[in-house]
Specification:
alpha+beta; CBS-domain; Alpha-Beta Plaits; 2 domains; four-stranded mixed sheet; four-stranded antiparallel sheet; 9 helices
């Protein structure tokens, strides 16, 4: 899955001259935490986040209510935005795992998706990534979710043979190094139209592999 597949297209954008109070209102009304700041041709000039619009307690302590109101009234987006040089961007053709790594390394909640000349075409948030990973593991549909623990050198060969023999379809699949089990990998598979007992019995023929977890998994609220 690529950034293009899960990004928010045509995000709400604002001008650097927009009053900061107006930006805050837009974010509250649309329940969003990020606003790309753009100039002519939708070229990126900065980013407004909910944190950038928050007044620090130390600042409030030195002002009376009229001074606070006056200060907020004169602030524009340009005064409080994250400048372009400090905004993390990505192109639509990058993978979502690269996007997740970029956000994790920099401890940020979004990436601005740009094309040539820094033109903004989308926005990718933590929520978008979490939704994409849910889709990759088949969460939206009902099925049996099984985690098979196997030696690193076994890979998927024997597991794939069992799946082919039983004519199982796969709604989602993923793998990761097994926690606290050096040299082993946990492979997670979501299989539709089968029962837990059927999957458990079919996988019992595998040697050097164990079922770490098995359960019926469906969409939230089901």
């Amino acid at each position: 899955m690529l950034v293009n597949d899960c990004m928010m297209r045509h995000p709400i954008m604002i001008s650097p001259t927009t009053p900061a109070a107006e930006a805050q209102k837009i974010m509250a009304e649309n329940q969003i935490r990020h606003l790309p700041v753009v100039g002519s041709g939708k070229r990126l000039e900065g980013l407004i986040t909910s944190q950038r619009l928050a007044l620090m307690p130390a600042d409030l302590g030195s002002l009376n209510v009229w001074e606070i109101t006056r200060a907020l009234g004169h602030l524009t987006v340009k005064d409080v935005m994250v400048k372009t040089a400090d905004v993390h961007c990505i192109t639509a053709d990058r993978t979502i795992e690269f996007a997740a790594s970029l956000m994790t390394r920099n401890k940020i909640g979004c990436l601005i998706v740009v094309e040539e000349d820094n033109v903004v075409i989308g926005l990718l948030t933590e929520a978008d990534l979490l939704h994409a990973f849910q889709e990759m593991l088949g969460l939206p549909a009902k099925g049996v979710r099984v985690t098979v623990r196997m030696p690193e050198d076994e890979r998927f060969i024997h597991l794939a043979a069992v799946m082919v023999e039983n004519r199982w379809g796969v709604m989602g699949i993923g793998s990761f190094p097994s926690p606290r089990n050096p040299g082993y990998w946990d492979v997670v598979i979501k299989i539709p139209h089968v029962s837990v007992d059927e999957v458990r019995e079919a996988l019992s023929v595998l040697t050097n592999m164990t079922i770490a977890d098995i359960r019926v998994s469906a969409s939230p609220g089901e």
